[in-house]
Specification:
This protein has 230 residues and is an alpha/beta fold. It is built from 7 helices and 11 strands. The chain has one domain: Spore Coat Polysaccharide Biosynthesis Protein SpsA, Chain A (Alpha-Beta Complex). The strands form 3 sheets. It has a 7-stranded mixed sheet with strand order 5-4-1-6-10-7-11, with helices on both faces.
């Protein structure tokens, strides 16, 4: 089984009031993106990593992240697209031909564990399509124009994380259908769902946060300190 990971980190938005793109902000002593890539570097089931980055940060990623932190599994740093889906597709078309399983993981989710990565790969190998998610703990309301329309059944709701893992042919078929239909989904699994392929769920972790705000950066430092203590 040959496993390739696509790490989309091509977002150009700056949501924390500074001048540095969120994926390059420092968490403890290194960029958030470096923490994420090192998780995949250390996971023995991962063969190749394809990093998708902003056009103006390709060289920075190559020298100040990949080379500096010795992330040898990164075989290519690829220019991102207009939307996340475009960026993942840019990685997909560059994937090593012998790839069996494709893992897609947000560049700003630095606390994914090797155990969850390995479990999601094993489940995808068995079933073809898997996402990592956690059960919703809060009551969720459907709201329109500031008014509650419906109270959703919390027992049926899960909050999606990454990685999302697929057999190569499944993901390629889903992307082809989306391109043909000019359809954009919010994640890779939504594309796979559209072609009628069942997607299984692997339980994630509350620590597997996506760092996009200053508050989440504070949480990220707290999580990192907790792990250092443990």
């Amino acid at each position: 089984m040959f496993v390739s990971a696509i790490i989309p980190a091509a977002g150009s938005g700056i949501r924390m009031g500074g001048k540095v793109q969120k994926q390059f902000l420092e968490l403890a002593d290194k960029p958030i993106l470096a923490h994420t890539l090192l998780r995949f570097q250390k996971t023995d089931l991962i063969n190749n990593i394809y990093l998708v980055a902003p056009k103006d940060a390709l060289e920075y990623c190559k020298t100040d992240i990949v080379k500096k932190y010795k992330i040898t599994k990164v075989v290519e740093v690829i220019e991102g697209g207009k939307e996340r889906q475009d960026s993942v597709y840019n990685g997909l078309v560059r994937i090593e031909p012998k790839t069996d399983i494709i893992v897609v993981h947000d560049g700003v989710r630095p606390f994914i564990t090797e155990e969850i990565i390995k479990e999601s790969i094993a489940e995808a190998d068995k079933h073809g399509a898997v996402i990592v998610a956690i059960p919703e703990k809060d009551t969720v309301k459907e709201v329109s124009d500031g008014l509650i329309v419906n109270t959703l059944n919390r027992k049926l709701l899960w909050r999606t994380q990454t990685p999302q893992v697929f057999k190569r042919d499944v993901l390629e078929k889903a992307f082809k259908k989306a391109i043909d239909d000019k359809y954009y989904g919010t994640d890779e699994s939504s594309l796979v769902e559209r072609i009628g392929f069942p997607v299984r769920v692997v339980k994630g972790s509350d620590f597997n946060i996506k760092i996009t705000t200053s508050e989440e950066l504070i949480l990220g430092n707290a999580i990192l300190n907790y792990h250092y203590v443990k």
